[in-house]
Design brief:
By secondary structure, the chain is of the alpha/beta class. The protein has two domains: 142-279 and 494-639, FAD/NAD(P)-binding domain (3-Layer(bba) Sandwich); 284-351 and 384-489, FAD/NAD(P)-binding domain, CATH 3.50.50. It has 20 helices and 24 strands. Helix 1 crosses helix 4 (67-82). The chain is globular and about 80 Å long. The protein starts with 15 loop residues before the first helix and ends with a strand. The model has no long low-confidence stretch (mean pLDDT 95). Bound molecules: flavin-adenine dinucleotide. The site of flavin-adenine dinucleotide has 32 residues, from helix 7, helix 8 and strand 6.
Length: 640
């Protein structure tokens, strides 16, 4: 499956000289893997493996070789590209072949348990069904997905593949969710997009390792176009309530359409994919309505707002504030950054985030190259980064960091602070956190954030404002700062479905079951709420490596397996038992107790709910999450 941006790699529009020249610039390890996949011949590995070595290009390893071997490799790939696949060739996604070539392409050992995950996450083949597809759901079975962000889109694509009738409902008038609505200056992804995207729609043409929001939104729109998702979507329609109808054994969907008309429709299963960061949070600041200038929240940005020559304050120091400061510092007359609590900020690793033209060419012209490019970007962190969030009690007893691995990150960030602000300087003190890295989401400097804070026309206030008045902001120590614009980069309410009235069996409300500590079994299932798979569920975001897309893809695979289980057993409902739910949530909470989030109580983080439970991240290795979501455990369900 491809998108406008993700053309199927095809070299036939290039001449041999051009092709040769690009292949010479390729990663030699990846080229060996590509050759093995093109020819389906494992002997390729024996021929080249010991001629490849690796140079670090953090977090990746780049495969290099000598000139002679490179020429041999290039010629072999050129031949393979123009020849039909030899008879008896191994399939390009053969697990044994893959296990041999992955270390060459990725530059590290790859343990056998990861092969299945990498084949799927690399997009070498789609998510592999586990339960036999020998039975079908009734033809009138319908799934309704609420939300057309990346999660809802992923669920829709899986339904389409499985031949299940589906409908998406979104209150926006276009797909994309976060990436459609958030348009503040400098908005960009902070997980490399080679990886932070759908494994079934790999885009080899990203212009940047961390593209701007508009480029990311274009990608999502092209996925929707290529797969006709809009034809299945009710736009500008807000779902107000989901009520389980026991008589029909269906969900009642109460929605308000574009003209304000309320209507009720039905679905056999629902997948709420509404995200959990949608509703802008304005701080409770005295006097904020009295400000005579422009007050704006980053999530409700007005693209016509011109900051040039203005006196601006920004409240917040999270990812959004960092991106806005980086983008606007050159325009404003004066900027005051109000930082309630500093974050750990990692320096940009490369001189520029632009993807080199040669890499984009290879991604879009050479089969499998973009897949490996995606996996390299994933593998460089992924579970290799897991030790960073795990607490080593002995180490943590007398360090701010929680483990030696966590300390490496702390040192890197401290070194960055010292380099930009000068060790021991006032600014250095202001921006240095007092909790371990990862206690709250680590921030990646888009390039010029720290440099911006050090500029003469920028002030950092290491506190929240005391109050707002007509002229501007009054600081905690009573200083008046006159302003033209106040930007509230104060984030979102952590809304785990709290804005939708969800009632399960016997009218029990999900908001009451959850209170301020939401939790869910695999697939976002909660006892008493049959046939509901909450895609934007608690504990589905990777906290140590990978992007939101990982949790989304793992979950939609699992949901399809659950629907298949219903088909196999010929039953209209599936519901997790209270025992299985309690046991799974207990497993999460026990594992969570050893992570950084439970040992940095001073860090203000949206990972923690009002009830104190860590609700966004999961505490497990990615491989454990992936494996435990391959297929449903039948004994955990009431199927009737
Ligand atoms: C500014 C920002 C940057 C981010 N950057 C990254 C990143 O770089 N890497 C990463 O891994 N994660 C990132 N995230 C987190 C996460 O990946 C994104 O928020 C992602 O877009 C979430 O996808 P989603 O489909 O789950 O939810 P959303 O994108 O929030 O989509 C939910 C959809 O549901 C619709 N909806 C909600 N309620 C209703 C309702 N009642 N009725 C009808 N429709 C409804 C909304 O209109 C929306 O279209 C970021 C989040 C934000 C806010």
């Amino acid at each position: 499956m491809t998108t406008d941006a993700t053309v199927t790699p095809d070299h036939t529009d290039s001449n041999p000289a051009e092709l040769r020249s690009y292949l010479r610039q390729a990663d030699a390890g990846v080229l060996v893997a590509v050759l093995a996949q093109l020819t389906g011949d494992p002997a390729v590995v024996d021929r080249f493996a010991d001629k490849i070595s690796f140079e670090p290009d953090p977090p990746e390893q780049i495969g290099v070789t000598d000139d002679e071997t490179r020429e041999m490799l290039v010629e072999a790939v050129m031949v393979a590209l123009d020849q039909p696949r030899p008879a008896g060739a191994l399939p390009s996604d053969d697990p044994e072949l893959f296990a041999r070539i992955a270390p060459l392409a990725l530059g590290t050992e790859v343990s056998a348990e990861y092969v299945g995950l990498l084949l799927e996450q690399g997009g070498f083949h789609p998510s592999q069904p586990v339960l036999p597809r020998t039975a079908e759901l009734p033809t009138d079975f319908k799934v309704v997905i609420i939300g057309a962000g990346i999660a809802g889109m992923a669920a829709a694509l899986e339904c389409a593949d499985a031949g299940i009738d589906y409908e998406i409902i979104d209150r926006n008038d276009e797909v994309g969710g976060t990436w459609y609505t958030a348009v503040y200056p400098g908005i960009g992804v902070d997980t490399p997009s080679a990886y932070y995207s759908l494994s079934r729609d790999i885009n080899g043409g990203w212009s940047s390792y961390y593209p701007q929001g508009a480029e990311y939104q274009k990608y999502l729109e092209s996925v929707a176009t290529q797969n006709n998702l809009r034809d299945h979507t009710r736009f500008s329609t807000e779902v107000e309530a989901l009520w389980w109808d026991e008589e029909r054994r269906q969900w009642q969907i109460h929605a308000v359409g574009p003209d304000g008309t309320r209507e009720v429709s039905y679905a056999n299963a629902v997948i709420p994919a509404v995200g959990y960061l949608n509703r802008p949070r304005w701080p409770d600041l005295a006097g904020k309505e009295s400000f005579a200038g422009v007050s704006i929240h980053s999530a409700e940005w007005d693209p016509d707002l011109d900051l040039r020559g203005k006196k601006v304050a920004i409240i917040g120091a999270g990812c959004t504030a960092v991106q806005i400061v980086d983008a606007c510092v050159g325009d404003v007359e004066h900027l005051t950054v109000f930082q309630r609590q500093p974050h750990w900020v990692a320096p940009r690793k490369r001189l520029t985030d632009d993807v080199p033209e040669s890499r984009r060419w290879l991604n879009t012209h050479i089969p499998f190259y973009a897949n490996w490019n995606r996996l390299k970007s994933f593998w460089g962190t992924a579970d290799n980064n897991y030790p960073v969030i795990l607490r080593d009690p002995e180490w943590a007893a007398d360090h701010l960091s929680i483990s030696p691995a966590n300390d490496v990150l702390l040192r890197m960030c401290l070194d960055y602070i010292d380099r930009v602000f000068g060790a021991g300087s006032e600014l250095a003190k202001k921006v240095t956190p007092d909790f371990a890295p990862y206690g709250k989401r680590i921030i990646r400097d888009p390039g010029g954030y720290y440099a911006a804070l050090a500029k003469p026309h920028v002030d950092v206030e290491a506190s929240e404002p005391a109050r707002v008045n007509e002229r501007g902001i009054v600081t905690q120590d009573g200083r008046q700062i006159d302003l033209d614009v106040i930007i509230y980069a104060t984030g979102y309410y952590l809304d785990f479905l709290s804005t939708v009235d969800i009632r399960g069996r016997d009218g029990v409300r999900l908001s009451e079951v959850w209170g301020d500590s939401p939790s869910a079994y695999r697939g976002g299932m909660v006892p008493g709420f049959p046939n509901m798979f909450i895609s934007s569920a608690p504990n589905y975001s990777p906290g140590h490596g990978a992007g939101h897309n990982f949790g989304v893809e793992v979950m939609v695979h699992y949901v399809m397996e659950c629907l298949q289980l219903m088909a196999q057993r010929g039953v209209p409902t599936i519901e997790v038992t209270p025992e299985a739910f309690e046991s799974y949530v207990g497993e999460i909470d026990r594992a969570m107790a050893d992570t950084v989030w439970c040992h940095t109580p001073t860090a203000h983080t949206y990972y923690r709910s009002g009830g104190g439970r860590i609700v966004t991240a999961f505490p497990f290795r990615l491989i454990d999450v992936w494996q435990s979501h391959r297929a449903p455990i039948e004994g955990d369900f009431i199927l009737r």
